[in-house]
């Protein structure tokens, strides 16, 4: 027969478990997908994400093919992964730098590139400076950071261990804690067939 102390301890453990579960659903760091290379943030310190990744349903469709990161004019921009600069210059009125990483490539804009095409870069190496002109966040300054594998757009936040929040489907069963428990009652978690601590 459980005691009031044991039942109270079970409730505290469940509360901690629910807190951990709830906070794991909040936006923020998440594990990178299996096989994603470990990268670094292109801005330092790690910036605020102004707008997240929203891939288009079709290649010509609307969406956001990267992420926008809050920054400051003239702030150094770094390559998220080691690779080679394959483009550095103006494109449609804004500076763009593209770094090839073999199977994938990352893009950075608006950036005044500081390296020539063909230059090898290490992960975290400065590739240019953030510009105000052409910013997606005008009148604020932000870096649009993209990642592609072939023609497929990928979420660049996966490179730094962030990813989309995944919610489990609602089962329709609410977790209700009893208002009061007595020493003579079966713990509510056991009554539901769950293991109690």
Please summarize what this structure is.
The chain is built from two helices and eleven strands; from the N terminus they run αβββββββββββα.
How would you describe this structure to a colleague?
By secondary structure, the protein is α+β, with helices and mostly antiparallel strands. It has a domain at 49-55 and 64-160: Glucose Permease (Domain IIA), CATH 2.70.70.10. Helix content is 13%, strand content 26%. It contains 2 helices and 11 strands; from the N terminus they run H-E-E-E-E-E-E-E-E-E-E-E-H. The protein has helices spanning 4-24, 188-191, and strands spanning 49-51, 67-70, 76-78, 83-91, 94-100, 105-109, 111-113, 120-121, 126-130, 142-149, 152-154. The strands form 2 sheets. Strands 1, 2, 4, 5, 6, 8, 10 and 11 form an 8-stranded antiparallel sheet that branches. It has a 3-stranded antiparallel sheet with strand order 3-9-7, with no helix packed on it. A hairpin with a 2-residue loop joins strand 4 and strand 5. The protein starts with a helix and ends in a 6-residue tail after the last helix.
Overall 3D form = globular
The major pleated sheet works out as: 8 strands, antiparallel
Distance between the termini: 14 Å
Overall CATH class of the domain at 49-55 and 64-160: Mainly Beta
Order of helices and strands: HEEEEEEEEEEEH
**Count of β-strands:** 11
Helix content: 10-25%
Assign the structural class, choosing from mainly alpha, mainly beta, alpha/beta, alpha+beta, or little secondary structure.
Answer: alpha+beta
Note the beta-strand portion.
Answer: 25-35%
Tell me the name of the CATH homologous superfamily of the domain at 49-55 and 64-160. Glucose Permease (Domain IIA)
- Tell me the radius of gyration: 24 Å
In the predicted model, the low-confidence regions spanning at least 5 consecutive residues are 14-32, 176-186
The CATH topology name of the domain at 49-55 and 64-160 reads: Glucose Permease (Domain IIA)
Number of continuous helical runs = 2
């Amino acid at each position: 027969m459980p005691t009031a102390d044991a039942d109270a301890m079970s409730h505290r453990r469940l509360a901690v478990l629910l807190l951990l579960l709830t906070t794991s659903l909040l936006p923020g760091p998440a594990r990178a997908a299996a096989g994603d290379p470990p990268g670094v943030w292109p801005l330092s310190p790690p910036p605020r994400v102004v707008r997240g990744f929203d891939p288009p349903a079709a290649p010509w469709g609307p969406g956001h093919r990267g992420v926008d990161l809050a920054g400051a004019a003239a702030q150094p921009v770094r390559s998220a992964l080691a690779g080679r600069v394959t483009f550095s210059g103006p494109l449609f009125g804004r500076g763009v730098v593209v770094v090839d990483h073999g199977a994938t490539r990352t893009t950075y804009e608006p950036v005044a590139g500081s390296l020539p095409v063909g230059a090898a870069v290490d992960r975290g190496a400065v590739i240019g400076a953030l510009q105000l002109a052409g910013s997606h966040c005008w009148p604020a300054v932000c870096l649009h950071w993209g990642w592609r594998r072939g023609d497929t757009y990928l979420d660049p936040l996966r490179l730094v261990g962030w990813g989309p929040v995944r919610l489990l489907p609602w089962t329709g069963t609410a977790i209700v804690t009893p208002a009061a428990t007595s020493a003579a009652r079966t713990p509510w978690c056991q009554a539901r067939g769950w293991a109690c601590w």
